[in-house]
Design brief:
13 helices
Length: 251
């Protein structure tokens, strides 16, 4: 989590340097191919535009998106409470998703659809619906909430939102069928929301799923090393505790 928090705040260190390396067009080209000449974001927004702005669908999907800030962590806490034997491996895999995802953010900073549309790279009809709903729901507090939670505007590839929710769904499925069904229902709804709201391209979600697959595959290879490091740290902790106890007895 140390790596994740530092990568999350990284753009504030030198935003201009990050801006010079920003990639904008490659996910647009990919999604134009997926959408057969039109961005899936625009297709979805046009399909539901008859509901009007600020409609219940927009609000529900925005809340689904905001719930992500709690969902992966809540899933791990549930596993810790109900299946503590599964927690170390589950936490290790979730941390791998966050840390590797942020490493890609640093290596290949990529603009999201709403930013591309606002800056003339994509169809200008593409709206950032979450922003509209946030301003209506939270009023003057929205700007402060967004500044606190949305520190990296160029963290589109891969979609860490989708990757973390997908990893949570997999881990919950391993714990039980009901929990897994809830996890997958959330991940699927979030995936739809991210594209519809203009937050991510479809290719970002595909990359997020690939990230999860890579972490799951790589975790089996790294598990012996992780166990060895964990065991060594536990032995050092035991030695330190024994030495501290001896000093207290001598005193």
């Amino acid at each position: 989590m140390w790596g994740f928090l530092n990568a999350k705040d990284m753009p504030h260190d030198d935003p201009e340097a990050l801006r010079r390396r920003l990639r904008v067009t490659y996910p647009i080209r990919a999604d134009l191919a997926i959408g057969r000449g039109e961005l899936p974001n625009v297709r979805l927004q046009r399909a539901l535009e008859g509901l009007g702005r600020g409609n219940p669908v927009d609000r529900v999907l925005s809340w689904v998106h905001w719930a992500w800030f709690f969902e992966p962590h809540s899933s791990l806490l549930w596993i810790l409470a109900k299946h503590p034997e599964r927690f170390p491996r589950s936490a290790r895999q979730m941390a791998g998703v966050f840390d590797l995802g942020c490493a890609v953010y640093a290596a290949v900073p990529t603009a999201p659809p709403w930013w591309a549309a606002e800056n003339g790279y994509a169809d200008e009809r593409l709206r950032r619906i979450m922003q509209e709903v946030g301003e209506e729901e939270w009023g003057a507090a929205w700007e402060h909430l967004y500044d606190f939670l949305g520190s990296n505007p160029w963290a589109a590839m891969p979609s860490l939102h989708f990757a973390a929710s997908m990893m949570a769904a997999i881990l919950l499925s391993e714990a039980g069928p009901v929990e897994g069904a809830l996890g997958w229902a959330y991940a699927g709804t979030l995936g739809f929301a991210l594209v519809y709201l203009g937050e991510h391209y479809v290719i970002d979600l595909i990359a997020g799923a690939a990230l999860v697959a890579a972490v799951r595959w790589g975790e089996h290879l790294a598990e012996p090393l992780a166990d060895a490091v964990s065991g060594a740290l536990q032995r050092l902790e035991a030695i330190a505790n024994d030495q501290g106890g001896m000093r207290r007895l001598e005193a």
